[in-house]
Amino acid sequence: MTGAYGPRPRKEDARFIRGQGTFVDDIAVPGMLHGAILRSPLAHARIVSLDVTAALAHPAVVAVLTGDDLAERGMAWMPTVFGDVQAVLATDKVRFQGQEVAFVVATDRYTARDALELIAVDYEPLPPLIDALTALDPGAPVVREDLPGGNRIFDWSAGDKAATDAAFAAADVVVGCDMIYPRSHPAPLETCGAIAEYEAVGGRLTLTVTSQAPHAHRTMYAAITGLPEHKIRIVSPDLGGGFGAKVPVYPGYLCAIAASMATGRPVKWVEDRSENLMSTTFARDYHMHGEIAATADGEILALRARVLADHGAFNAAAQPSKFPAGFFHIFTGSYQTRAAYCEVTGVFTNKAPGGVAYSCSFRITEAVYLVERLTDMLARELGMDPAELRMRNLLRPEQFPYTTPAGWEYDSGDYPRALRLALDMAGYDELRREQAERRARGEYMGIGLSFFTEGVGAGPRSQMDILGLAMSDGADLRVHPTGKAVLAISVQTQGQGHETTFAQLVANELGISPDDVDVVHGDTDRTPFGLGTYGSRSTPVSGAAAVVAATRVRDRARVVAAAMLEVAADDLEWLDGKWRVRGDPDLGFGIAEIARAAHSTLELPAGVEGHLDASAVYNPPNLTFPFGAYICVTDVDPGTGEVRVRRFIAVDDCGVRINPMIVEGQVHRGLADGIGIALMQSIVFDETGNCLSGSLMDYLLPTSLECPSPELGETVTPSPHHPVGAKGIGESATVGSPAAVVNSVVDALAPFGVVHADMPLTPGNVWRAIQGRPVRTDLSLG
Amino acid sequence: MQVPAQVEYEKAASVEQALALLARYGPGAKILAGGHSLIPMMKLRLAQPEVLIDINAIAGLRYIEPTADELRIGALARHADLLAATVAGEHFAILHDAERVIADPVVRQWGTIGGSLCQADPSEDLSAAFAALKGSMIIHGPDGSREVSARAFHTGPYQTVVGSDEMLTEIRLPIRLDGGSAYMKVARRIGDWPIGAAGAAVWLTDGGDRIADVGIGLTAVGATHFVAAEAEEFLRGRPATEETLAQAGEIAAEHCRPGSDQRGPADYKRHLVRELTARVLRLAVSRGRQTRGQVS
Amino acid sequence: MKITVTVNGTDYSRVVEPRLLLIHFLRDELRLTGSHWGCDTSNCGACVVWLDETPVKSCTVLAVMADGRRVTTIEGLPRNGALDPVQEAFAACHGLQCGFCTPGMIMTARWLLDQNPDPSTEEIREAISGQVCRCTGYENIVRSVRWAAKHDGRAGDRAGGDGA
Predict the structure, then answer these.
(1) Range A368-401+410-457+622-780 classified under CATH 2.40.50.140
(2) Hey, which residues 193-232 in chain B have their CB within 8 Å of chain A?
(3) What is the pLDDT of residues C42-60, one digit of tens each?
(4) Nearest to B191 among A112, A703, A768 (CB)
(5) pLDDT per residue over B18-39, tens digit each?
(6) CA dihedral A329, A334, A336, A337 (to 10 degrees)
């Protein structure tokens, strides 16, 4: 039954088009003070002395906190989501440019900024470790002398090494390549911030904060501050984008909390854009060596990868605890392979912490990029068309559920159909003809494909946890006496339209209008526990919980309806939005009438409680596996290295689509991400550790003029284990698109002998690739 | 939060008043026009003037007016004004080429021509365009006004010949026969500062076959005064052929001094000079040939 | 210093520091939080409002520069309680997701339609090219403006004074 599904306008739009959204910085609370963070100008240095007297003497400064002040409260260091620790305010050393050193609290934000200049810090510079490739060299500067492993964080592997080596040894063709997935940053348009209100008499803390995971934050703040968890309330208001940037607990939030405790007043801290880019969670930064082995006629046999992962100064990568490299081992992609093996080594460097963010789907962006680049390179080596090579190797529908060599069980998919649709929509053969004609004229266009499989909706308690918390999410559904429903969920929208789509989910199960379902989220006092929104998990996990809760309501409604009609519950069937007597469908009641009755004095069977409420905690049995086929057409000017994206064709399969309009909007964004990531976005450092991408003048984001009008297609392969067959879509296009763009540019440059070129494909990088002297794109100077 | 440091503020209603305020406050005073060069610098605290002298209320400084042999641009003319001015586009296609790729449509509504030129960013597109056109700047000071060639106006990064007690009021561009011009810019993204850019203005003779005079401006590649002087000298008097134009590009590339930064490596920028100089010359010559016999 | 700014038709007199940015004047002083800020370098356009009928990135002008002038923000766009067709368009065409860039986009789109009542998609893309959206990939913003152009009753209406 899909009555309430469909492309309906969003409920949340009413406030946003009027400028009446409530974002953290929109909120002013009586008596509120403003905080500002003094940050380290150096990437690696010892703090010799720190003098805040001049700042404290400023008439409008109320307090100044240092690492020592926080240490007295046990808050100078905090746990990261991955079992490491991170400095809230530096106590001994600074370990990345932009690291938090002191916190000023003043009566207004301009004064807070002024007061930063009144703090005197004496640094003793230390040699910085910037080039991750040197992190494990003997004599490399040690970032974390507080840990035993030097700069090595972890070594992790997945797959069968022996079988993989054997497959490679027996292969006709092996293609290998070094490729970088450069450090980038999610850069949501709204930066991170919080308002901390500690009320000493009741011992209650209310934190209004940009958080994609309010409940997980609450549990962490309890651990860090020592405040009892039931006295902490986290409120995430409207969020101006998240994309993973708003998952972590940031030092600024804790500084605001400590400052509120110290001053007895509400304290607001909101970061500016440079702070956002320099200190909050980065994304990617994987140095990969990948190899693909195949037969001479193009059957992919095996894949092998070795990765050096740059995690910055603290290991704050937010992924399930058993997966230090996230889901990277999904790197065999969408193809039938016999064996695969990957090794990932994580290292510390003198850069900001993070790594898992920006719609990476827990490192699936990195994995898909690797396998799709290798596939194209294999096609080139074999002299095969890249579409043909993919079609030959894509998993077939009858092979599902399919267990990959690294242990993933893909749930469902018809891959060849999606690829065929994309090729048809693109007019692929015609494009190849055009390409040949243009080449003859000395014009260079490229056609790049990318086929991706993603695993989202983390995840089953048997396999996944974050800091020991299972990744199950709750949903509470109440139907009021007049038949209006309120659904409280644990996930947190940052623009994905949950207020609409979750209403549609519940409305569909209950036969009522989505207008009659209100969705409550973001306030831990009003919502059940869950681990929040990231990894495209809202629909697969929380959506499932909502459906289960709605199903329970509907089941209870059956019992009530039976009592209303004085029949047995088994005599009723759910038909067209009502519980109706079998064989006499005019006799029946809808949810609204049943809700009234459930709240009334109607006699109910023994053991059946009144009202019409239900809750659920959903433990997903598996991930869900959305997939897609993308084709990118570019034109390249070899004289200048400029790349123009002419067309972007995207066929997505995210299972059942609750609101196709919203699904398409998610895809539009991900395609823009791909253009940005492939062509212009990267966080780069010079050799002394200065971040050169600390503003939107240098961390370039794609504009309306770089993004062509996308051409979207769909196939629908329901997830067999999700209650309504939906899979999740939020990150798909960001996962699949960068490879399509890079494959396209490399394809355009094939006549120049270019076999690979690293992102970002800025004009200079493209030109250098054509010259055969590629730059190392993670270091700023070529 | 990136916000400016404390600053004082005065409003000038006339050029005379602005000059008087500049004299009173000395080098700590800065002229505030559109603010779209200065205020970003103040927010980052790279500029910390003591006093701002707001000249937006001065009437009669925002115009784009042709005379018999010049186009005169008031210093308060906005980028959008220049882009919309048909008379500017007719005579100096290079200006429209450049304005189209400067910043973005909203910023162009407010940033002023005078403000951009006085900011003297080495990546400012208009500086090279005016240098190529061999324009001149009118500067008002306590002793009256003086005229300085656009090719001597900029003395270094963020430095011009405008003294701390002076004010730029007008830019003049000579309108000459048989000319064509063009500007091309390569950036990492639309609206970004250039990685490298070139502008050319040519004046043709011999039925369009020979280059009587030429101006070549280069942006963001360390060209002194934004000018490719050696390439100009080579080209002057030579036939306008594919070979000579390409050669001019080579010479321009040889004599610029680009640095490597996150926009691109130096060798690539030098290549861009070679490539873009030849392309803008080609386009300028082609446009010049189309308007042969007309004032352009 | 004391300034008087007419915002959405109402005069506001305040004493402000000369360095106060217009965006902060609107948001913090006047509590008109519909306009947002998202960067430090005038790149993102979340702060676009109108200063005397021309869109401006309000993070790049000082409040004192608006003294004696008129400012229009998203809150001032509706007329007699009725939404502007551009606002309706964004809701009809899914032209927003998180809503953070939306007021700035709407202000620029309204201004574009006032100058050019039937813009091509290229002209729309050019007009918003100085403003960043991280959620929509711009496609539905462009479609929203096209929808507004088709349903616009307000082009040419601006001469009649500021909105309620």
Answers:
(1) no
(2) 193, 195
(3) 999 999 999 999 999 999 9
(4) A703
(5) 999 999 999 999 999 999 999 9
(6) -30
